[in-house]
Amino acid sequence: MDGNGASRTPELKTLQQKVEYMVEKTFPGEKVSGRAFAELVRQRGGSLSHSYFSNILAGKVTHPSEDILKALGLGFGVDWRFFKEESEVVDDVVAGLQFLARRRTGEISGVAERGLDEDGMPPELLQFALALLEETKEKQAGERHGKEPARGGQ
Fold it and tell me: Which of 78, 81, 91, 113 is most buried, with most CB under 10 Å away?
């Protein structure tokens, strides 16, 4: 089975499953009350009522607002997008990949430093972007050894 807890990841499709999983991983062996979690969120600059949190754990809330998802992220110390529905995350990743493709082909010529918010980029997208960057560097290095670059200076 899963002797150290790392070899099997439970199915995390619903908001309730994700929150239960995070409670288990963030507060192992503890019974965390809705009040304690709501207070933790408040201390970290967010807002979430204890009854709303309890309703999420009970499966009564299935489609909360983005503000609630951000509050959950604050409370658990994770990127709030973890709590989004899978289809929404897929949409975010696709949008990010489309952005990277436009950036790579030159449709987008620059990215302002403020282009990413404080939450940054989802880990999967960051990993993909880094791999794409590495691939591009290798390709450009190969072109430099074989022929003169076609691009001019900035």
Answer: 81
DSSP states of 104-150? HHTSS----GGGS-TT---HHHHHHHHHHHHHHHHHHHHHHHHS--S
Three-state SS string over 75-98 comes to: HHCCCHHHHCCHHHHHHHHHHHHH
Q: How many residues does the chain have?
A: 154
pTM metric for this prediction: 0.55
Give the Cα-Cα-Cα angle 123, 37, 45 (nearest 5 degrees).
Answer: 65
Rounded to an integer, what distance in angstroms lies between the CA atom of residue 99 and that of residue 128? 12
**What is the token pair recorded at 76?**
């658990």
